[in-house]
Design a protein that fits this description.
0% strand, mainly alpha, 65% helix, 7 helices
Length: 174
């Protein structure tokens, strides 16, 4: 079994961080994120269907639902324009409806309604929509590089620079 050097053992976090200089590609990064968020979705789905018997059930339910819906959003975002995207979308939405049905079925009947869980489930989608709207209307005023965020000339120049790599450059916006 290979062992890591002393310096690497002390800096293991830096070794595993994303670094374009090491040859990390956007495709590899996307694949890793898909694996992580698929696992989070599976775990939160199972926890929602079979919740623990705890006093703070609704606190558990709200945070579990937040993690589940955020994972669904990331999976749908990362698989956009994949082959069979429509099938991925239908399966993911079906899983979300099943999660909601299971939550309703296992929730205690004598307690408050599930409106907080519904609001929590919509939260990541609403926040993402607000960010997109903000970028659409105000993004050019807050651009750090003083270039338009969605200029067709800039996108064409980026595609020409990519060449035969076959990958579009990824733009991250806050």
């Amino acid at each position: 079994m290979p062992t890591l050097s002393i310096g690497l053992r002390k800096n293991w976090l830096r070794y595993f961080q994303y670094d374009e200089g090491k040859g990390d590609t956007t495709t590899e990064t996307r694949n890793i994120l898909l694996i992580i968020f698929t696992l989070v979705t599976a775990v939160t789905f199972q926890a929602g269907v079979n919740p623990p018997d705890i006093q703070a059930y609704y606190v558990f339910l709200i945070f579990n639902t937040l993690a589940f819906s955020n994972s669904i959003l990331v999976i749908l975002s990362l698989t956009h324009k994949f082959p069979f995207y429509f099938e991925i979308w239908v399966g993911t939405v079906s899983m979300a409806v099943t999660y909601g049905s299971a939550i309703i079925a296992v929730s205690p009947k004598e307690t408050i309604s599930l409106r907080y869980a519904r609001i929590t489930a919509a939260g990541p989608f609403v926040v993402r929509l607000l960010v997109l709207i903000f970028n659409l209307f105000f993004g050019k005023h807050f651009n750090r590089n003083n270039v338009p965020l969605s200029s067709t000339d800039e996108i064409a120049a980026d595609r020409n620079r990519v060449g035969d790599a076959g990958e579009d450059p990824v733009r991250f916006r806050i």
